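sanity check this record:
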Amino acid sequence: MPQAVVFDMDGLLFDTEALYRDAMLTTAQALGQIMPLSLYLATIGLSGEATRQSLSRHFGADFDLDGFWRQASATFHTLTTTELRLKPGVVELIDLLEDLGIPFAIATSSEHHDVERNLGLHGLFDRFPVVVAHGDYQLGKPHPEPFLTAARRLDVPPELCLALEDSHNGVRSASSAGMMTIMVPDLLAATEEIRSLCVNVAAHLGQVHHALLNHSRGAHAPA
């Protein structure tokens, strides 16, 4: 039974990865560029800076990356006003963790203002007192620092934390931090490598809820 849970945000709590994908591919097309879906998928879980570096390598040094980034960001924020959806099972899982007295946090590659906006739109801002976002660490995912920072702020050893991730880079980050890791796939399927780094791969957060509930009942069963 974990003593703390660390959530990723994009693609795990919120259905944002598909919105980022649509914003980037649409913007590239509008600028007369071809952006393969595989390029976007490879950036999932990375920091904004790492994503920009990947895009720069693909489009070349002469490409107006700043202009692309501004336009894609504006498109994404427009989409979030009407299409930002909470992943099924999020509220129920948070309720369970609170009932069990298990602290939890967010460890994300996104900016703090994006976390605050997303949580605020769904009335969850006050339910995540611990948020580790871009700027709280030097090295982003797949480096373990984001998850190690979350464990430190929760005051729980990493090996006693359960990390929930949807991306390959996120799983690598959490696993290398020493956390028990469950992948809940969004746009990326679990590969053989990723499965080897996880204690389980769940189809949705409801399965995580069910597993934790069963574990808690077992832990409180009479000897």
